[in-house]
Each structure stands twice: as C-alpha cells, then as structure tokens.
Design a protein that fits this description.
Blueprint: H1 2-23, H2 29-50, H3 61-84, H4 90-97, H5 100-110, H6 117-134, H7 144-166, H8 172-194, H9 199-204, H10 206-227, H11 233-240, H12 243-255, H13 261-277
Helix pairs in contact: 1-10, 1-12, 2-3, 2-8, 2-10, 3-7, 3-8, 4-6, 4-7, 5-7, 5-11, 6-13, 8-10
Length: about 290
C-alpha cells in the first residue's frame, strides 16, 4: 500500500510541473509557492478536525518540530525550483530535480542508512533513464537556472531524510499541515520584498495555484509523509522520481507532445529500476560451524 501511495504522489507531482510553469505566467515564484502552500495547509485542517486530532491538542512537540523542519526544507526546495524554472526548460528541471534519487542514498550513508547493491544498481539505471527521458542528445549544459534546480534537488534529498526521521514519530497529516503553513509563511517574506503580489494576478493563476495547492501540496506531500513510514528512503526516492516520467506522459496526453524513441527508452529504464527495487533481497545463508 505504501508503494502505491508513493506512485500516486509521483503522478500528481509530475502533472504539477505544467501547473507550475503556467502559473508563473501570472505571478512570481515566491507568490506561487506562498499561495500553494497556504492552500495546502488549509485543505488539511478539516481532515485533522474530522480525524479528531484536536481533541488532545493540535500537535505534539515532536510533530511541531518535525513539521517546522520539513517546512523549512520544503520552502527552500520549492522556491529554488520555481525560480530556476524561469531560466531553464521543464525537461531539464525535471531531470535535475529527480537527481535526489542519487543524493538520498549518499546522504543516507552518513545517517547509517544501509543501501544494498541491488538498490545502488537501480539508482544507476534510473539516472540513465532520466537522462534519456528529459535531456535531448547533446543538449545538456549547466546554466544558472540548472544550478538553482540542482540545489533544489539537494534540499529535496534532505527533505526526504527529514520525513524519514519524523514520520514514524507522529501523525503524518498533522506534520504535513504544519510544514505547509511554515513553507507558506517563510515564502511570504521574500514575496513581499521582491515581488508585487495582487489578488488579480492570483485570480488569473487560480487553476494552477489550486491544482498545486490542493493536489500537489495538500494531497501528494501528505501521502509522501504517510507512506514513508514503511518505506526505505532510497526506495521512496526511486519511486518519487517517476514524476519525470509522468511529466512527459502528461505532456503527450494533455498537450499533444509526442515522445521520441529516446524518451520511450528512458521511461522503460525508469520503470525497470522501480520494479527491480521492489524485489526481495536474497537471504544470506548461514555459515556452518
């Protein structure tokens, strides 16, 4: 069930790339992150009330700490991605962002998170698949926007590891709600200093903001927090990087953008890596005395 929830999360995130790009035709990157985050937090409040979480107080100390830590990481990552997308293509942004599939197990080494050789192999296959999927042949050049998105991938890796630490210690919906309000409040500060937000521009971008706020933030990030309780963070990052595959497929289905044989092979490698990651590790035979 946790794997299915993460697959649903990747599906929502992948299709949200279109909403993010379209939304910034009307509002700035900090305004977009502020709006989607606040909406994501508001959406979860009725869920918390319905589940009766307020009967014993809104959140425990651990949930407050976890939510705030997740929110800080999410704020930095989302805004780096939003600003970076102004200077790079959606395909390159999708590929670079999904490099957290490599960074998560590397960072996990310092946290004593063991990763099997099988998973490392899956990570390698997925990176090759991501490259074929998102980057045209001979077209990869690291520019300013790409560097911002690369930093975004680093912070998303930290975000995944923070969730891995706090999700078993508290309620996932509460932690997620706190992270959205934290992200929204922090994003509102540079929004007021560097942008000129207006109700009219937000209304013009309403459908993009609502999709990113309700589904990509409120639903998907909550599913991530809940699902990661039972999934190794490296395996979770492998599944979540399928958002790049979904982004390409969404462009093909909804926008009529065709897929080349190179992109199709990229999708195949990505799916193969995910399937391989779900295979049970071979049991070690006990040595005889």
């Amino acid at each position: 069930m946790s794997v299915l929830l993460l697959l649903l999360t990747a599906t929502i995130w992948g299709s949200a790339f279109v909403a993010q790009s379209v939304g910034m035709e009307h509002v700035g990157p900090f305004t977009f992150t502020f709006s989607r985050s606040i909406i994501g937090g508001i959406v979860l409040l009725p869920c918390i009330l319905f589940l009766g979480k307020w009967k014993k107080g809104f959140a425990t100390k651990v949930e407050w700490i976890g939510g705030i830590c997740c929110g800080i990481a999410l704020c930095i990552a989302n805004n780096l991605q939003q600003v970076g997308m102004q200077y790079t293509t959606v395909g390159k942004a999708g590929f670079i962002t999904a490099l957290y599939v490599v960074l998560v197990p590397i960072f996990g080494i310092f946290l004593k998170k063991r990763v099997s050789l099988l998973i490392w192999g899956c990570v390698a296959v997925s990176v090759v698949g991501l490259y074929l999927l998102c980057i045209p042949e001979g077209a990869f050049v690291l520019a300013f926007g790409d560097l911002l998105v690369l930093l975004c991938a680093v912070v998303f890796s930290v975000h995944i590891l923070i969730i891995d630490y706090f999700s078993p210690k508290g309620d996932g919906v509460v932690i997620s709600c706190i992270q959205f309000f934290t992200c929204g409040i922090l994003s509102g500060i540079p929004m007021l200093f560097f942008e000129n937000p207006s109700i009219g521009s937000m209304i013009d971008a309403k459908w993009s903001i609502l999709y990113a706020g309700v589904l990509s933030s409120g639903v998907a990030y909550t599913l991530q927090v809940v699902a990661q309780k039972n999934v190794n963070p490296t395996v979770a990052s492998l599944i979540l990087c399928l958002e790049s595959v979904v982004a390409v497929l969404a462009g093909w289905v909804m926008l009529g953008q065709g897929m080349s044989s190179r992109e199709i092979w990229g999708c195949i490698l990505m799916f193969a890596a995910i399937v391989m990651a779900q295979l049970p590790a071979p049991e070690k035979t006990k040595e005889r005395d």
